[in-house]
Amino acid sequence: MSDQSLRDIHWMLEILQTIDVGLVVINIEYEIQNWNGFMENHSGHRAQKVQNRNLFDVFPELPHTWFCQKVDTVRELNIRAFTTWEQRPYLFRFRTYHPITSTAEYMYQNSMLYPLENTSGEVEYIAIVIFDVTDVATNKLALQQANSELARISRTDALTQLYNRGYWEECLYRELLRCRRHQHTASLILLDVDHFKPVNDTHGHTAGDAVLRHLSRTIRQNVRETDIPGRYGGEEFGIILPETDSPKAFAFAERLRGLIEEEAIQIGDNSVSITVSFGVAELEQNMQTIEDWITRADEALYQSKQSGRNQVTAT
Ligand SMILES: Nc1nc2c(ncn2[C@@H]2O[C@H](COP(=O)(O)OP(=O)(O)OP(=O)(O)O)[C@@H](O)[C@H]2O)c(=O)[nH]1
Question: How open is the CA angle 154-156-158, to the nearest 5 degrees?
Fold first, then answer.
């Protein structure tokens, strides 16, 4: 080999050693043949120390079956394989360099597997190339988190943390469609605090807010997971009860009414008691829109108010 060729090989090896991607070569028995500086820095093992050691012994976290299937494909078909951090956050568990500034505990990695042929054209070795994509991954995850938080905020009522009217009405619409399509039943409850204005006038608006928050908590704690409560207006709330006919919805509303009536709400030094009126409407064949359904529940609620409040009326 000429001096020039030797020099060329030397600087090529130098590049492979210092390049900011991980490079590991294994044989078909999964024994490590060599790795570069990136791997030394992140694993803490010198290349000589790991030479001929089984890859799974050095990295016990590497999923055995999955990785072997990948390598088999690369070897048998003589093709490359690629894995992104979104499919699998990392191949090798390396702690991140900047634990303070980075939100990730471990390095996110994209990885490539390359078949390496011997002079007879047989795949004898596999090269594993690791790209550190922690910055990209954490930025994308932060963006996804921010988006889902924005979506949550846009459907939540800030005071009560129940669904706001817009989103709750969307749920009601979906429930109406679902019941129509599958011939199922559902009920709608509207409830409105009795004489709420005097609560505000006597104890102040902040106390009124606290009462609404307390009431919302009581509602949330007493509905089923499949029920959908929401804040319909100022002191008016709606609850969608899927798979519930009118007598069952009536019984639930009656229980909730009794609970609210019995509970004294402590606000500072004051104890405030409230009562609530309810209107219940089961979905009927002739209801075309959610407005039809809401109107029926509202009529029942109006009847409860007219008949003396603190009661449940079902249509
Ligand atoms: N503190 C507080 N008060 C609210 C909020 N939204 C609506 N209100 C108040 O709720 C009261 C509703 O009063 P009305 O519609 O007269 O009803 P009511 O006094 O509850 O009487 P009935 O419903 O007829 O029993 C008003 O004083 C509103 O200012 C809110 O977010 N916070």
Answer: 105
pLDDT > 90 fraction of the chain, expressed in percent and rounded: 87
309 lines ligand 1 (CB under 6 A): yes
Interface ipTM: 0.91
Q: Phi/psi at 25 (nearest 5 deg)?
A: -115, 125
pLDDT at 107 over 90: yes
Given a cut of 90, is residue 284 above it in pLDDT?
A: yes
Atom 27 of ligand 1, nearest CA residue:
197
User: CB of 194 closer than 6 A to ligand 1?
Assistant: yes
Mean pLDDT of the region 285-295: 95
Q: Are strands 276-282 and 312-314 parallel, antiparallel or unpaired?
A: parallel
Domains in the chain (CATH in brackets) are: 3-141 (3.30.450.20), 159-314 (3.30.70.270)
Ligand 1, residue 200: give the atom nearest the CA: 1
Q: Is 236 helix (H, G, I), strand (E, B) or coil?
A: strand
Q: Is the CB of 305 under 6 A from ligand 1?
A: yes
- Helix extents (H) in the chain: 3-18, 37-43, 47-50, 55-58, 64-77, 134-154, 165-182, 196-203, 205-222, 246-262, 290-306
pLDDT on residue 104: 82
Whole-number Å distance, alpha carbon 187 to ligand 1 midpoint, is 25
Query: Is 90 exceeded by the pLDDT of residue 270?
Result: no
Residue located nearest, by CA, to atom 7 of ligand 1: 234
The two beta strands, 264-267 and 270-273, are: antiparallel
